[in-house]
Specification:
The chain is of the alpha+beta class. It has one domain: Electron Transport, Fmn-binding Protein, Chain A (Pnp Oxidase, Chain A, Roll). The strands form five sheets. Strands 3-2-8-11-12-5-4 form a seven-stranded antiparallel β-sheet. The N and C termini lie far apart (48 Å).
Length: 206
């Protein structure tokens, strides 16, 4: 097998390597609001949930050059944002929203995406996304030489498209989420394999 010593690689080469290994990755499609009122939109594929009660999500936000991306600035400034899950019809919009624009340019307006008001935060959500989660900032940790910011937020409201929930669970096939793989490439679910249910200790009494 090929041996690769990460101490001999720069950050960009390690990033390309890791994003081809850690696949597929779910995509957090995030709207955030700047102090001046610009609605920013950007996708992040270093994304997971970290708590179920209260529900908390984490995204890793890197830099663009020497500065942090607009999303990190906005979340730390306003402490509110929305994480969306996009489906296949939104794949091109997700990809196009990754183009870097100056802070005064709204990717939402640039892409002509319709928005709706949220219930508990000021940031608007995307009307076309099958899932939108209103979040409030809870914690930020910095990692590595590049000082990537792991931003953790609490979900204060879920918005889920009608027909996606069945007995409290999301029908993943109907959700039709997209995932990120290495480079400017994306993946869909493909075949879903169902195995036998295994016993797990209940996480709570409800």
């Amino acid at each position: 097998m090929m041996r690769i010593d990460p101490t001999e690689l720069g950050a960009e080469r390690i990033y390309r390597l890791m994003t081809g290994i850690v696949v597929p990755r779910p995509i957090a499609w995030v709207t955030s609001l700047s102090r001046s009122g610009v609605l920013n939109l950007a996708p992040f594929s270093a994304f997971t949930f970290v708590s179920q009660k209260p529900p908390m999500l984490a995204i890793s936000v890197g830099r663009k050059g020497a500065d942090y991306k607009d999303t990190a600035h906005n979340i730390l400034d306003t402490e509110e944002y929305v994480i969306h899950i996009a489906d296949t019809p939104l794949m091109s919009a997700v990809h196009d929203s990754s183009v870097e624009h100056p802070p005064e340019i709204s990717e939402v307006e640039h892409l002509g995406l319709e928005t709706l008001a949220c219930e508990r935060i000021k940031v608007r959500r995307l009307a076309a996304a099958p899932v939108a989660m209103e979040c409030r900032f809870r914690q930020c940790l910095e990692f590595g030489e590049a000082r990537s910011r792991l931003i953790v937020g609490e979900v204060v409201m879920f918005h889920i498209r009608d027909g996606l929930l069945n007995d409290g669970k999301v029908e993943t096939k109907a959700l039709d989420p997209i995932a990120r793989i290495g480079g400017p490439r994306y993946a869909t679910l493909g075949e879903i394999v169902t195995l036998n249910t295994v016993f797990q200790t209940p996480k709570s009494k409800d």
